[in-house]
Design brief:
With 317 residues, this protein is mainly α. Helix content is 77%, strand content 4%.
Amino acid sequence: MDPGNDTGISDFLLLGLSEEPELQSLIFGIFLSMYLIAVFGNMLIILAISSDSHLHTPMYFFLANLSFVDICFTSTTIPKMLWNIQTQSKTITYEGCLSQMYFFTLFVGLDIFLLTVMAYDRFVAICHPLHYTVLMKPWLCELLVLVSWILSVLHSFLESLMVLQLSFCRKVEIPHFFCELNQMIQLACSDTFPNNMVMYFAAILLGGAPLAGVLYSYSKIVSSILGISSAEGKYKAFSTCASHLSVVSLSYCTGLGVYLSSAATQSSHSSTVASVMYTVVTPMLNPFIYSLRNKDIKGALMRFSGMAVLKGSVVLG
């Protein structure tokens, strides 16, 4: 790498998952399939919820927002990766890299906040069922989503602004398939102490606080479920939050796995492979988790499919 320092750098190189030419077609096929499944799966969840009046409740309002964020989340990184493989180019512009980093950070934050809000919704539904409609009014649900957006936008803007102050060497090779904040900071040639402080402080505040909220909510939920006398009542109460608990566990475990793998080994490749789990696999699995474990979503999807088939036959007729 040329040690020269350059604040006017125009391009970065994304090294991707593998530099082996014979693996590129396989990687392209796998990631294209996962991307399409993630997008169409989450789109179906949104359409099913919006088309079924029975699902116009706080729980499904938050789920529709989560599905929208997951579509944006995967669309921030995967299309560029697929384009680079198809064109046999590893280049991404400086502006494109900053934009990708900004939106990726934005949607990661939104994902975390929405999962926390959904945990609070399940806490109110199970621990205070008689006051649920009073506490979870539509305007409050909209306000919680709006606050999540504002906090995520401000955090992402701050991180991007800090990266703009950095200077990079003339040839920057990013050992990843997208521009991640941590990788950008590590590859800078200038002092990165302020960036690292902001990043770690934000991780503790915006990652630790939501996690504490989720753990508190579920500790109360478990306590309430154990207090139910009948087995049927326990099962019914648990089934209302089982899908969300599965998604939360998957999201936090995969995210934690990425940072543990990068901390445990010096190999950036292992961290890159691990990051596939939370950038692609988790958004792809979320629709399956909610549709397979939720009778309401199953019913809505079947009704929506029936409506689509009926409209199609009317048009053809």
